[in-house]
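pasting for ref
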Amino acid sequence: MRIARHRIVSALRDRGQQARADWVERELPERVDPAKHSGLLATLHLDPADLVDAPSP
C-alpha cells in the first residue's frame, strides 16, 4: 500500500498547514510508503487509512 504524496499535501493544505505541505512536497517521494514514514504521518496527525488511493476495479 502506497499513498500518493499529493493526498498528504492536500490534507495539510485543507488544514491551513501550508509550510508543512510545502515541506512534504519537497522531501517525500511521489508514492509514500506508510510503513517507512509512519512516524512522520503520526507527527502530522494523518491516518494512512484516510489517505490511500481507492483500489482500481
